[in-house]
Backbone:
């Protein structure tokens, strides 16, 4: 990985069978699985299996992965050494209030933004469906940060592979995150 950039991936959703079981037994107001969300089988196919395939490569590239992230542990992730790139993978809910889903339940936009210090000047990449409200809140709190978000569905199975290409580009060529992301997305566009 580029010696000047430290990447962290925060996973606010279940990533193991035990976490998925915890989710099913005690939903704690979480929304992604269940009557309004997806099935466990589809979730396993679209999130857990692809993550299991790419996580070793991410680690080999020097990426720190924080599974089972809670509202409390999000603060600790940011304080755990330097953070140049923070990728948050989660689920967005608009109602009854704008919030994202973390492992301990739904977390308000203000609380997520407050996890970042106001002088944070790195990149915050929100791999969360249609989360412009959170992106605006983070940008307002951290004016020196570059905030990237997805303004549509953020399908983890697709984005995990995109991130893998980005991390490999950084690791193999010493490219910075944003350049690696542009190179990777250009490759995906050329393949279509």
Residues:
């Amino acid at each position: 990985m580029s010696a000047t950039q430290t990447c962290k991936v925060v996973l606010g959703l279940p990533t193991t069978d035990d976490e998925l079981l915890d989710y099913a037994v005690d939903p704690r107001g979480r929304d992604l699985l269940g009557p309004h969300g997806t099935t466990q089988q589809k979730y396993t196919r679209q999130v857990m299996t692809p993550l299991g395939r790419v996580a070793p490569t991410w680690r080999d590239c020097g990426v720190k992965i924080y599974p089972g992230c809670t509202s409390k542990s999000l603060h600790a992730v940011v304080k755990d050494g330097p953070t140049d790139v923070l990728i948050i993978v989660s689920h967005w809910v608009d109602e009854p209030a704008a919030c994202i889903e973390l492992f301990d339940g739904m977390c308000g936009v203000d609380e997520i933004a407050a996890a970042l210090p106001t002088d944070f000047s790195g990149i915050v990449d929100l791999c969360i469906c249609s989360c412009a409200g959170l992106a605006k809140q983070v940008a307002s709190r951290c004016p020196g940060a570059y905030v990237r978000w997805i303004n549509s569905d953020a399908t983890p199975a697709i984005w995990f592979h995109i991130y893998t290409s980005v991390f490999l580009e950084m690791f193999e060529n010493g490219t910075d995150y944003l350049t690696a992301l542009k190179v990777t997305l250009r490759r995906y566009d050329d393949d279509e």
Remarks:
- The chain has seven helices and eight strands.
- Residues 7-191 form a domain with the Rossmann fold fold (CATH 3.40.50).
- The chain has one domain: 7-191.
